Amino acid sequence: MSMLLSRTILPLHRTVRSIQGQILRTMHLQQSQAFVNGRWVGARGGQTFDVTNPANERVIGTVPDMDVSDANEAIDAAYSAFYDKQWHNSTAKERAALLKKWFQLMEANRSEIAQIMTAESGKPIPESMGEITYGNSFVEWFAEEARRIYGEIVPAPQANRQIMLTKQPVGVAALITPWNFPHAMITRKAAAAIAAGCTVVIKPAEDTPLTALALTKLAEEAGFPKGVVNVVTSSRKNAASIGELLCTSDKVAAISFTGSTEVGKLLYRQCANGIKRIGLELGGNAPFIVFKSADLDKAVTGAMNSKFRNCGQTCISANRFLVQDEIHDEFIAKLTEKLKALKIGDGSQDGVQIGPLINHAQIKKVCHFVEDAQQKGAKIIYGGKPLTNHGSLFFEPTIVTHLRDDMLLYNEEVFGPVVSVIRFKTEEEALKIANGTQRGLAGYFYSNDLNQVFRVSRLLETGMIGVNEGLISTTEAAFGGIKESGIGREGSKYGIDEYVYIKYLCYGNLD
């Protein structure tokens, strides 16, 4: 296994080889209906849309194309479950037990979930298995955190008073999730919300609803009460109107969204009238800085891990590679050799490390970014074109150098397998380039100069930083950005905070 895969994939509970190469078939977890108020339902009008495999564009499933009337039913079900059916009075122990059961069922069904995820997202089976390990860990974590939602007793300024601070669930949480991590982005949000005592309405991405429905099937089997977990599926045609409803409904107390900055800004505006609680994990433009003191082999391995997971379609993928003059050429040479060794193809096949892009809009964007750079004087060191012999959604791993600040690759997130290299001379220059964006999700740098490590860690304007490390996502750490890359944090002990409010109780006249 390549360094890319050996570092990217967490320990697997079952062998990957046993499920590679299998064809997605009708299985226990593959669902064709949405889930509202404890029932599997279609759209009111009977509309459906197809889900396709990006590796070959074949239809692998059909799900309901729901609209605002269907979404309203899901909101009503979640609202009723929270208030009328007393979910808000459930104990932390009860919620923890249900989350633990959900975790156990997901662990027991890893292989089937991985097949579904690879079929609809295109990512290689080992990456799907790695995501399942990562996603399941949030459910296990928040099952444990549910019993640690502590309040406080605060010393009062008067002798006859007592001040108490308690935490209570906000109510119905609407979760809008992306296609690039169809498992982990649901569990990271839903497990925290449920642990806090909220009910949820999940709107999965239109490209990857089958993974969401598979997880929901297991939530049903775990025994969650009716209305606690609801899933609304829709095509792109209805996605915007459903999103607006979730943001404006008086019955929805909180919104959590992972996706593009542009959509995040729209949802933020739509939530404003209701002063609704909102958590946003938005786009990045991650710098990956390699200083001359760096261990180049480790930096190249980190670059591969950060850039090429899910074909570069991750929100914390390295986007701009800043390499110091003295080691620029050597870094490029070493990285090129790694790219040449990557196996590209259908993610269900044995040994594949790079799958397709998710859809035609995405490959069109990647092609446009590379063509824009080339037309403006950039140099293609390796790759640079679609791989039509594999399928219409494949783009070869690419290295582009001689970037300028008028190029799209310099300024915007490509979300594809393209390494954009910028040469720099001094640390000050690298930081100026790295921080010269309104995005601030993640950043990476490699250096063996201890003073530089602490200095750059303090000055780099991102919410998360990998120091001599290209893989930084973990359940225990707070995930989130600054600037236009988001609001709030997910995972860690802070993930619960997005779904609770603090109630201040003042007990007076205690003479």
Automatic annotation (TrEMBL):
GO terms for cellular component: mitochondrion. Keywords: Mitochondrion, NAD, Oxidoreductase. Pathway: Amino-acid degradation; 4-aminobutanoate degradation. It is found in: Mitochondrion. Gene3D superfamilies: Aldehyde Dehydrogenase, Chain A, domain 1 (3.40.605.10), Aldehyde Dehydrogenase, Chain A, domain 2 (3.40.309.10). It catalyses: succinate semialdehyde + NAD(+) + H2O = succinate + NADH + 2 H(+). Its EC number is 1.2.1.24. Residues 40-504 form the Aldehyde dehydrogenase domain. One of its GO terms (molecular function) is succinate-semialdehyde dehydrogenase (NAD+) activity. CDD domains: ALDH_F5_SSADH_GabD. It comes from the Eukaryota. The active site is at residue 281. The keyword NAD applies. Catalyzes one step in the degradation of the inhibitory neurotransmitter gamma-aminobutyric acid (GABA). Belongs to the aldehyde dehydrogenase family. Homotetramer. PANTHER family: SUCCINATE-SEMIALDEHYDE DEHYDROGENASE, MITOCHONDRIAL. NCBIfam families: SSADH. This is Succinate-semialdehyde dehydrogenase. It comes from Culex pipiens (House mosquito).
